[in-house]
């Protein structure tokens, strides 16, 4: 009979003992609540103790968490509109204040509240600047201003906003088509200007090349005429010297040249006296004496 009461008592004791012990992971923070009131804060990893069945343990993240905001339209100082979103990193620093601020919603509720803070901070900061500064590579000043506002507002929630980064700065959809059309027109105008400058340069190169060709051709013709004239002069000088050395032989050579020209085959015919002086070198009379005049040219040819 005694064993029947001992075993249930042991079970109750074990359950009670286990219910009074909780473990805090190194990535977590814990609050011990009694009827909704905070009675104990456990931020260090290890074992913790609570009153069983009366107190409960709530765990919160001790790691750095990320928050991606929804895209919002912002009107800049220059009246231009941009679609902007941001990414923030935050962590819980005051777990008691955090519990009182977010209630039972925990980290999910904190994400919503921080998103609202950033949604208000981004237009407040970007509304005081221009598009060039927002779209520039170095916009750390703007992000630091947003971070300062988020830290100030987040401290009331028991969290620390570590960093804020602008991830998207685009034009609204209704402005993209007009912007792209303007950019395309500017590029087409620049392309037309480049083509016009290229055509002008090509015309200059072509004109210079044509002028060079004309100059080179004219110079070559001039040199050819000079060389031809010098050659004719040299030929005449040689002929004159040859004629002066042996006039009869020169006359004989000229007669042979005339025979070659006059007696070519073809449709022409020659009418002359058989005893013409033209044939004196073809007759057997021999070479004429020095006083005999040599034929200078061939007789006329009648068709």
Characterise this structure:
The protein is of the alpha+beta class and 303 residues long. It has four domains: 2-61, no CATH class; 65-170, Tetrahydropterin Synthase, Chain A (2-Layer Sandwich); 174-245; 247-303, no CATH class. It is 52% helix and 20% strand. The protein contains seven helices and nine strands. The chain has helices spanning 2-19, 95-102, 106-126, 131-135, 140-155, 173-245, 247-262; strands at 21-24, 28-34, 37-42, 46-49, 55-61, 65-68, 72-75, 81-92, 159-170. Strands 6, 7, 8 and 9 form a four-stranded antiparallel sheet that branches. Strands 3-2-5 form a three-stranded antiparallel sheet, with no helix packed on it. A hairpin with a 5-residue loop joins strand 7 and strand 8. Helix 2 packs across helix 3 and helix 3 (106-126) crosses helix 5. The longest helix is centred in the last third of the chain and has 73 residues, at 173-245. The radius of gyration is 58 Å and the shape is rod-shaped. Mean pLDDT is 81; it is low at 285-303.
Short description:
By secondary structure, the protein is α+β, with helices and mostly antiparallel strands. The chain has helices at residues 2-19, 95-102, 106-126, 131-135, 140-155, 173-245, 247-262; strands spanning 21-24, 28-34, 37-42, 46-49, 55-61, 65-68, 72-75, 81-92, 159-170.
